């Protein structure tokens, strides 16, 4: 499918649940994909890690190419890799509809490249272009590139491993990005997204929710995904209730940080 066709399909949804395939059962990929298709997922999120940009290894184009043979569901390749420009063509040829690379992977190195050039190169291949930022990267650093982005991904955990706790400060980044981008831009949140956090993320401006453990650790993927969708819809209907949840999350995070600080002080 063309970039425009996929974008039009994806932007029709404001509760787009994208299962993070890092958490799937790779020994039963055909079964996993069939279950996700039955649940009506609109996108699969493919976590590509190189052991360099992030301290973990996952899979590459060959696995994705085989996965492409099993389904027509759009793929978002989240490239958590150094030098994504070197490997872009391999992931496009493997069948990825969207390529999301990290700002830090192109800007924070001895010979940086312009993110805009890579975003345009993805567009030239008739694919959806995405830009991701880590928790420590402020939105201001990518503001000038947002006009070229079809998708902006906010990491709400440190990239590299599944099962981490959602960072509530990510919500402020979501709000900022949602204010800056056009209404047809996909705003994605990735990390610690589960029933207690998805509503806050939705109210803050996310319309794509990358979910791992909350789907793949559930006994019934269909029920888990539908519950997450319902929570997104409910949060839009009752945004004030999510503000209360956010306050509790932030307070809990502050309490945790203080405990860690006190422990470090005692150690010193």
Task: Give your account of this protein's structure.
By secondary structure, this protein is of the alpha/beta class. The chain has one domain (3-238): Alpha-Beta Barrel (TIM Barrel). Helices cover 44% and strands 15% of the residues. It contains 11 helices and 8 strands. The protein has helices spanning 3-10, 29-38, 61-68, 84-93, 103-107, 115-124, 170-180, 198-204, 213-216, 221-237, 239-267; strands at residues 16-19, 44-49, 75-80, 98-102, 128-133, 151-155, 186-190, 208-211. The chain has an 8-stranded parallel beta sheet. Helix 4 links the parallel strand 3 (75-80) and strand 4 (98-102). It is globular, with a radius of gyration of 18 Å. Residues 254-268 have low confidence and may be disordered.
Going across the major beta sheet, what is the strand order? 1-8-7-6-5-4-3-2
CATH homologous superfamily name?
Answer: Aldolase class I
Low-confidence stretches: 254-268
Note the run of SSEs as H and E.
HEHEHEHEHHEEHEHEHHH
How far is the first residue's CA from the last residue's CA? 58 Å
What Rg, in angstroms, do the CA atoms define?
18 Å
Number of strands: 8
Shape estimate: globular
Number of helices: 11
Number of domains: 1
Report the biggest beta sheet as strand number plus sense, adding barrel if it closes.
Answer: 8 strands, parallel
